[in-house]
Each structure stands twice: as structure tokens, then as C-alpha cells.
């Protein structure tokens, strides 16, 4: 059985290589565009989904090959660039605009992503966490009260796993007795910052304060986008107060 599958795959590869180069370019560019458009959210796609999305994105290359008045060399580069741009544009604006139109038309407010976790962590790359609090099943709460500090750190400012796991730089911890412990050694000038990995099985709840560039321009003195300079008037103490009670013993 395995030999038959291997032989069938080899025949399919040879058949693809015997196709005209225009079709190969459209399919290859379409698949690369598909990888870009659905990066991080492909795990629920079937083989049929991948094939037809590849063909759909490849239509951009086909259009350029049919109608662009360019010489060979430039024509192929333009076709591939158009396909990749189509995939990036679909991920950047196309998905959100389509969802909005369907909602306005009273069709549906849901998307094709299988979980809310993936929707909020993988779909909107323009939305970034400014604060993160993770409640564990043992009663502890781990907090990164200002992700700006770790924007340029390895894997910074945080990592959200597809399985629901989280990796973040913990700046404070609340114990089960409601006492707060400041993590003063999370940053080290010689050894680097300390990243904490939390498996999905240990997480009870995740709270995030999310930030966009649009919010940064509209709000005065608000928490800036990760990696940007802080707005005047916002101190780390004020950011920490988001999660910490006034009285540490309460």
C-alpha cells in the first residue's frame, strides 16, 4: 500500500513538471500566497481547502501572464509579485472586510477560524497586547504589566501557542493568598530576560489589554503600541495598578 502511494505521488510530481510553465508559475505562486494569507491558521484546512485556495490566489498570476505587456523575465516576476501581494492583502484587509460585510448583511458574525483563541491571537496582526495576566489552575496569577519593556527581547513581547499555551516575561505574580510578588530579576544585563512558558493545561484564564495604532492616535496619554515610545504621563506604576490592588493584603 505504501509503495502504491509513493508511486502515485511520484507520477503526480512528474505530471506537474510536464505542465506548461505558466500553469506551474500560477500554482507555485498561488501556494506561496496561500501560505502567507493563512499563516498560523491553516491547521483546520483540508487538502481540498488548500488546493482550491491555491488555485484562487494563482488567478492573480494568470491575469498578469495573460494581459501584462511585459518582456519575459519581468513578466514572470510581476506575476509572482502580484500573487504574493494578493495573499498578503487578503490577510491584511480582505478577511476583516469580508467578515464585516457579512455581518452588516445579517449573514453571520462568525468566521472560519475554529476557536476564539486563534481569532484573537493569529488573525489581527495590527492588534498587540500591552498587558497580559494569566490565571493558573493552582490559584496563582502571572502578569506582564508592560509588554513594551520586552518588545526587542527574544520571542518578545510574548508568544501565543496554537494549543492555547502562553510564553511571557513575568513582571509580577499574585500568590493564592492574594499577596503580590514583584519579579525584580526578570531582566538581567548579562544573561538576558527570563521568559516563562505556561502550558495550556495549566491555564485557567487569560486577560489581555489590546492596543492598535488607531487607538494610539485617538487616545491621549494611553499605553503605546509595543515597541514604540511611551506617551507622556504613563508610568509603570500606573500600568501595574491595572492588575494589582491598592492594598497588597486584600
Layout of strands and helices, then pairs:
Elements: H1 2-17, H2 21-37, H3 47-67, H4 74-104, H5 116-123, E1 128-136, E2 141-144, E3 158-160, E4 166-168, E5 172-174, E6 180-182, E7 196-198, E8 203-211, H6 213-218, H7 236-240
Antiparallel strand pairs: 1-2, 1-8, 2-5, 3-4, 4-7, 5-6
In a nutshell, what does this entry contain?
With 250 residues, the chain is an alpha+beta fold. It has helices at residues 2-17, 21-37, 47-67, 74-104, 116-123, 213-218, 236-240, and strands spanning 128-136, 141-144, 158-160, 166-168, 172-174, 180-182, 196-198, 203-211.
Can you give a write-up of this model?
Helix content is 42%, strand content 15%. The protein is of the alpha+beta class and 250 residues long. The protein folds into two domains: 2-104, no CATH class; 126-240, SH3 type barrels. Helix 3 (47-67) packs across helix 4. The chain starts with a helix and ends in a 10-residue tail after the last helix. Residues 1-11, 218-241 and 245-250 have low confidence and may be disordered.
